[in-house]
Here is the input.
Amino acid sequence: MKKFLCLLLGAALLMPVFAACSPASDVETDGVTDPVTSPETAGETEPKEDEPFVREGFVHPGLLHTEESLELVRDGVENGYDDYKRNWAKLRASEFCQIAAPRPTAKVIRGGNGDNVAQFYRDVARAYQCALVWQIEGDEAYGDCARDILNAWSATLREVSGNADRYLASGLYGYEIANAAELMRDYPGFELEQMQDMLLNVFYKPLCERFLISNEFGKDHNDAYITNYWANWDLCNMAATIAIGIFCDREDIYDIGIEYFKYGKGNGSIYNAIPYLFEEDELAQWQESGRDQGHAGLGIGLMATCCEMAYNQGDDLYGWADNRFMYAAEYVARYNNGENVPFEPYEWASGQKGDWQAHTGISSATRGETRPIWAMIYNHYHNRLGYDMPNVKATLDREKIEGGPGGHGSTFDQLGFGTLLYNDPEGSGSSARQLGGNIEDGVYKIALYSGGLYLTANDDGSVTVMPDGNEGQEWQITHIGSGQYKVVNVKNGMVLAVAEGIAHSGAEFLVEDYYGWASQKIIFTAAVKDSYRIFAAHATKAMTASGGKEGAKIIQKRYEQGFEQMWKLEWVG
Here is the structure.
């Protein structure tokens, strides 16, 4: 039978009606989460071989725009093609596509006393739009303006501060100014190393990196419970991390953003941001869909930004997890076009200690709000790859032209002008690298972290935990693409799965014949210490040994970092 897929997890970005803001007061007390354990090493007893792919430097320009994509726009504008003509006029009419002097300050504050962040994001918007005019028309007056704004800020800015919203500033405006700077990196007089220094030491190290994975500046997620912050908080800092890694030619930083997208603990990683996938409907529920639609759209736009920058460096995040992001974009677009969508109850824990809350239905708040995010997504999945995206297309047909920022602060969350900038030829295809998984193929025993009990397939098809030495405890784990695995019991040849693809907590794991359903595709992500959290692709509810004792049934349950939800892999061969 066909089943719907679902995924769940927990929480991360707020804004007053459409500009991001803190979900709770700034958390300054002791955190409750352990430092992130790398999914490349968590729980392994056998070292992995290095992947054969070796990057030979980054492509420049290579964030949201490449030389090839810019040349398409130049050709369209120069030849006066109708679509380009209308979209170019939209950009040139923007209040920020005008030459003006920079207004740098040593400290940018977002949230709390002395908030002055608008001064920064307005200059960033101007630098980006003027840089586009230089790149597309070659007007040096605009190039000089963009260069002067970027040089002034990189020479002056020494701190991004404020309440918890400082992490929104680091993410949103970090990825945006990196994109503006990438367009100007070879321009005469542009201070490349000065900009790199600012991005690394003002944005990345004290803010983006600390927020995502913790460092010497503090614990991750501002010392809050891991699911406290809505997905947007992670996603904007992931976008900044990827952008800064590329701009600064720092593959180690870039890789942090890429790996977090695939396996991160917080709500911005793909399985947590997209908690439920409905296979039959080809839709996937977005993490903030029960909150409001403005933030759902913001998150979709930020995930697209991460995917596009990685794609331009040859890495396919768009396709990760079986194109899961495509189905999430269709979901958010469909609901905001006035159509109905399925919804699964969504739980998350907030605050420092993790107080559990739930969304029981989709929110109609700000339904129909538009953001300039859809052209980039449609360009990849439809133009490049040929997928039908009826709901995203309907949104674009309704909007006609995507503009840029102006007015309310939330309009500065995206750089905009997508219908001008993202128009690859149909069928241009993808040569991007299909990224590998995090578990080496082989035979393993799967043990509870607390020790002594092993995942065991029984003769009746049930799955329990039993002491070492019982039959049915060896599992062949094989990567089937996009970080998903087929987990086959060696004794009976059946796969580990969730019964009937049920999304709710309490559904049992069992073994059954393989049909390729999402409930039969298993994901391993890092838990605390050196353990894994394990779940099926249809729901990010954790595989749990109910009660944690010998003979305990294995069920799916919301992830609470419990010892009965922490698993380790023991290599057999």
